[in-house]
Amino acid sequence: MERNKYLLWFIFLFTGLSVIIGLFSLKPTPPKNYNKFGNVKIFGDSIYLLKIEGEIHSGKSTYTTTGASTVLEQLREIEDKNEIKGIIVEINSPGGTVGASQEIFEELLYLKKSKKIVVSMKDVAASGGYYIASASDFIFAEPGTVTGSIGVIAMSANIAGLLEKYNVKVNVYKKGKYKDILSMFKDPSVEEREIIQSLLESTYRRFIKDISRGRNIPEKEVEKFAEGKIFSGEDALKNKVIDGIGGRREAQAKISELLGIKETLPIVEEEENPLDKFFNVINNKFLGNVSRDFKSIILEEIYKTPILLIMPNSLRI
Amino acid sequence: MQKFINNIYLIWFIPEEFKYFWAEYRSFFSETSLYFLVAFCLSLATALNSSSFNEIGIVTFLFFLHLPFMYFFPKLLAYFLDHKAREMGAEGDIRILLSFCKYSLVIFMLSCPFVIFVKSFEYNSSGVFLLFISFLSLLYFFNVARGLSLLYGLERSLAVKLVLSSVLSLLVLPFFFFIYYIVSLFSILL
What is the bridge-based pairing of β-strands A46-53 and A84-93? Predict the structure, then answer.
């Protein structure tokens, strides 16, 4: 009788021990994503897929453009997730505003210390898009990808002649000599040109410096493929603008190679919130015009910024 | 703790003596902690067994799913069994039968060491876990049948039939149980 009681005690202790072991072998619940665009769930070692699509700007991403705040939130969330061994950055962007591109570049450069980062360029990864790509360990592009366009641009139309022709006068009230520096109603003065040029020069130097820092190559090497030149994927490889030809599969394999492991890690992507997905479908199906208007509002906001890291024209095949 | 162990010992090893010690070992604390322990072990085992949902959050969710079931199921089962036994002319104390049904639940605590054991051989699968839970359920039902036959003076085979028919009735009644079975099954299979 006593033997059975001891057996029972033993079973209880064994169960208690297994509960403790079990609790320690559980994975902590991933914190809820504060990004309203979705939720990331990671099970085991994996690669995070980050998409940079459309024009790059500050603030939140939209369905067709990339906002620096959204990207930074995503990157900061995976920062302390040790299961994320690498990041594939898929870029399909002609560039965007200086500040937004620099913010993403700096964040990727910081993450490069703890995770392997490989870029896969899609149709276009020019200017600000290339700025971001330069923070990675390795850059892949498709043969037909348009890349490069390393330069800074500021544009302002001059419609003074047109207004004069129709006898229209614009009254400008200002305090500050250079307040209407990019005004479209007058020719810029020599001084104004110098100010703009100096601003562009310093931004350009910073661009070159950052690419050199990110790619770990001398600034003189960068200057060879800078000056706003654009390249196809194949030309970019010849000019060492990129490191290889390939897409997502190659990028995945490269991360394994950089990590020194044989197996290919699975890719985790931020899942779209079902509610957002639903509204996206509704938006695309029934409110197409509203969607276009929304995009034009965002683009309008981008082009309000005087200095851009963007490819001035787009190529269509 | 002593009362808790004594009750379990009596129910699983010498059930024929349980009715004599029932009043002495009766404890509200033991019964309440039993629900919590069983619900926790079962939810931890299910979460550990699952390859995609082995997170603390899932354990909490499953715990709150199992807890009300552990509380209501033995009660409903005891009432069903008592009603059916009385219909057949048998007499017994429903309070003792209820305690018997409650303390028999302790067998489900073994699911946790089982999962740890199987996991150490990297052989954990939903099918194996489901089989083990079915095996534990059968043990539970047979032990309750044993208690019923001892407490109401029924034949063992008749008690088994009564327990199985009562469990079948409880599969869908009340509706909450039906949802519970579906969610539990999914938590094991996913």
Answer: parallel
